[in-house]
Amino acid sequence: MNKEPVSRELFDEVMVPNYAPGNIIPVRGEGSRVWDQEGREFLDLQGGIAVTSLGHAHPGLLSALQEQSEKVWHLSNVMTNEPALRLAKTLCDHTFAERVFFANSGAEANEAAFKLARRYAWDNFGPEKHEIISFKNAFHGRTLFTVSVGGQQKYLEGFEPAPGGIHHADFNDLDSVKALISKKKTCAVVIEPIQGESGVMPADPEFLKGLRKLCDENNALLIFDEVQTGVGRTGHLYAYEMYGVIPDILTSAKGLGGGFPVAAMLTTAKVGASLAVGTHGSTYGGNALACAVAQKVIDTVSQPEILKGVNERSEKLRQGMMAIGERYGVFSEVRGAGLLLGCVLTEQWQGRAKEFLTAGLEEGVMVLMAGANVVRLAPSLIIPETDIEEALQRFEAAVKKLAQ
Ligand SMILES: *Cc1c(COP(=O)(O)O)cnc(C)c1O
């Protein structure tokens, strides 16, 4: 076994250069605290980008993982398995959904959603109804189909030709959707209820209601990409509940496994029927270990006191960040919902979000960016209040240094 010491420098020698990771290597985590190779401690407001929904080394997740690991890890979809069936039943019980497809990542869940939308329209209306409407700045993953549906041209550059039949409307602008949608051609409209990667930008409730109506009038499916907003992140199990708008397809990943790779596409029985035998699949999708862990995540996060706790923590964190923003003139607003918060940089600090991330690391707090103008926070949904207070102190020290 290779036990050679490794360092951050090795990254540049052995990895393709598509990421630019921070200059420490965390080796251990517990709750909302993480320690690096040198034993330095960090407060984690990154949450593995909205993934470690119950923090690190959560006892319930550890025992769920260990228990299942002693039974069966993997069977493939030639066989079904108990954890996958239980998790699918739980997801249906807790949401609008009646049918579930499991995958391993957000991009894969979205890939399944987009393929299903096309297949459903093909089954019911014919091949001409294949167009997908999404939104500028949207993020849906990095496979060629999902990156094409996503609304950031730079992620597609050099990878063309892209799949066709995709249009991009303006977020929160219903008229821009009206101009693109048609009964004849549109099979689906896909949206993140809160755009995550591109700056934590919430949709207006009236806009989502309008989308629902437009989709109904045009026999188009409404797809919510809740890869980032799902699993308690907004203080609701899924953000569609907060908006009171029910989609036809919903995708979930990130927080679903609490750090174990798993994703799900949720839909109705009527729509789901179009993924008939043999139309789609995934070797690992519905993996028994992954589903056992996700079960524990959903069972925990769906408890009303956990969801209520998200909103209480949100208030504390939001107010703390706003106060720092005002003291140093760095943030113009803190937006988002629950524990997905975006601190928007003022005019004077435009384009400098990465500096806050780096300065935070130096003071022992891990924060995220969402584009160059927003500092994003997505901590554990059960981060202790005292950790929030300490994280705010460390972050303030970082901002103070930056501002000097
Ligand atoms: C992260 C993210 C994805 C992609 O998920 P992966 O697991 O990285 O494939 C898709 N949609 C949204 C909204 C996301 O935040």
* Average pLDDT: 97
Which sequence of strands runs across the widest sheet? 4-12-11-10-7-5-6
The whole-angstrom Rg is 21 Å
Oligomeric category: single chain
Overall strand count = 17
Shape: globular
Largest beta-sheet characterization: 7 strands, mixed
Structure, described:
With 404 residues, this protein is α/β, with parallel strands linked by helices. The protein is built from 14 helices and 17 strands. Strands 4-12-11-10-7-5-6 form a seven-stranded mixed beta sheet, with helices on both faces. A hairpin with a 2-residue loop joins strand 13 (331-337) and strand 14. Helix 4 (82-94) packs parallel to helix 11 (288-301). The mean pLDDT is 97. Pyridoxal-5'-phosphate binds next to helix 5.
Which helices and strands occur, and which strands form pairs?
Layout: H1 8-14, E1 26-30, E2 33-36, E3 41-44, H2 47-50, H3 59-69, H4 82-94, E4 99-103, H5 106-124, E5 131-135, H6 144-149, E6 166-169, H7 174-178, E7 186-191, E8 194-195, E9 201-202, H8 205-217, E10 221-225, H9 239-243, E11 249-252, E12 263-267, H10 269-272, H11 288-301, H12 304-328, E13 331-337, E14 340-345, H13 353-363, E15 365-366, E16 368-369, E17 374-377, H14 385-403
Parallel strand pairs: 3-15, 5-6, 5-7, 7-10, 10-11
Antiparallel strand pairs: 1-2, 2-3, 4-12, 8-9, 11-12, 13-14, 14-17, 16-17
Helix pairs in contact: 3-11, 4-11, 12-14, 13-14
Bound molecules: pyridoxal-5'-phosphate (PLP).
